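quick one, 694 residues, struct below
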Amino acid sequence: MFCEKCGAPLDDNVKFCTNCGAKVTVPAAPSPEKKQSKAVPVIISVVLTVLVIAGIFAALIKAGVINFGGQKAPEYEPTPALTALPVYTEAPTSTPSPTPTPTCTFTPTPTPTDTPTPLPTESAAHIALNELSGIIAETEKSLDAFEISEFEGMAELIEIADRLYGELSLQKSKTEKLNGLPENIRKACSDMYELYLTGTFELIMDVDFLIDFSEIDDKFYDDEAEIEDLYDALVECFEEKVCPDNLKDCWSKMKRSLDYLGTYLVRSNEADLLYDALRQSSAENLLMRFATVYGNERDKLSEIINDELNFADLQFATGDEIMEDVKKVITMSDDAASSYKFRYDIENNIEDPQYDHIATIYPSLYNTYDCFVTIKMGCLTGAKDVIVSCEIPGLSQETKQSYHIGASLTVINIKPPASSEKLNLDKAKDTQIRVSIKEKSTGAVIDEQSFPVHIASRNDFVWINDDFGTITQDNILCFLSPDSEAITKLKRDAIDILSYFTNDNMDSLVGYQGPYFAYDYLGDGSYDDDDDLTATMLTTYCQVASLMRAMSDAGVRYTMDPFSIDDAGQHILFPDQVIERKTGLCIETSLVIASALQSAGMHTFLILPPGHAQVAVETWYGSGYYFLIETTSIPNTNTDFVDDANYFLNYWEGESDNYPISIYTDDYWSSYLEDCYVIDCSDGALLGMTPFAY
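---
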């Protein structure tokens, strides 16, 4: 090293200059060079370039090409070479002579030192980006290990997904702790990890639910399982298992269908005790109804889970795209990285909603539909509150409902309430289903759609269609109208006829109120148990006969047109229309009598033989005996029914096929119902099949 004062060469360890005695300052040793990422050579290159430009800039200033203050720098004049050292003489003491001005002064130039130029200091952003590069490498390794994993079942898949979730959470935490990371990159990384974590979490939730659901499913499809055991197992599973939010609608419908299964068990047990073929047949059809509803909702549930997994896959794919941007930014300079605009800004971003809508609505079945529109949407990350509106002009009111859309797939089923105005649905028409999705806080429109829909007439009926609600033969119950004005009037007219039949002993439709009114009709009033049974049967018979006569007196006549429950659709009149138009198919006249009997509180069935329709009514609730009513017998007279009543009283021995009201033995019923579809009219409330209010 060299002395800073006189420039004399010195040993490395001396503290004072051996030439001039000045104190020597030992230069600090350079800091050890830190480990640098691939981005370091780029940064050093930039710094060196800046230094070169600064040197050129200084030279230009010195040469006068560039100056400050608007003045040109003075031209440089070289110092002349020395010919001899200046000579000094001692001045006389008397008169001091002025000190001569030297023409040149000489100052020794110190010898240049070998001190190295210090490396530029790494910025906090550069250090953070360097550390982020390592974290991203860990993330890629975790994701790659998950993608290539081989697992033997869903339980192992959950274990692997749990491990991935833990690793991603740790890597996200490391990223959040990086000091100096530019905010744009910090947000991009936050979005990326939220996408990965949310997708993994939904995968875990869905697969975990699938494990529980498979237990239920196995029981449902076990042909050897006893139905009682199946019912108990399903009830237990539905009470204990936790269902993800996006599956709750299907889950609740599947759970509600257990009421059908429970009713089947009760009705089947009653049928066994009473040797009741109608109860047994209707119970078996209700069991099939349960299987249909449960199976349809199971398929929808599986579809939603598949859509949820696809949504999670979209989250992973979007996370991968953000990661590619992050990896590119890591190699940039600090300024370029800080100002980089990422392609994806997904905070509270709702992915494009997916719609499924009904194509044709049958107003007669309005109350049986689950929904008219299904919307599936979700935020890739974050959450948003929205208002969803839906309206079907000419059929429904507008419905508005608030939904919280989170970072998973949300399934929304929409069925707006029927219009409160009087609707003209005598003819079919085409209209639209209008849907709007808006932000709750700002009212900003997220999406608006209109879908074409065909509105069938009020009398159109479809036997088979399960797209937006379960439809089987049971749905004909929607045409029962026990509370309509036309049925009320029919009952009033029937009372006058009933008084005639019973010698004024009955002045109302009493339903199952007792046999005592029939004692005077039968004779002296002394009866054994068989006579009481006959009296109760006669009570029901007279009420049925009076209703049949009232329908005949109203001028209703049977229309012999084709009727089949196997066709895709059918045009069916409601009871009030049958009475008003004085005509009806077998199914339509049967609906009139069934509605009146149900209004009187009597246990009534619709019997659907191939290509035909009839009514059956129990003689007394729990008796196990039934009258079969042929409604196509109209027109008829009082004498017809009086003669039949007398025949029934005098000759009945457990069976009578006297037309139009017959009674059969158990064996005959079992044989007769083999090809029939039997519907218990009391199931309308259980199945939610009520008439549509026009």
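DSSP finds 17 helices and 17 strands in the chain.
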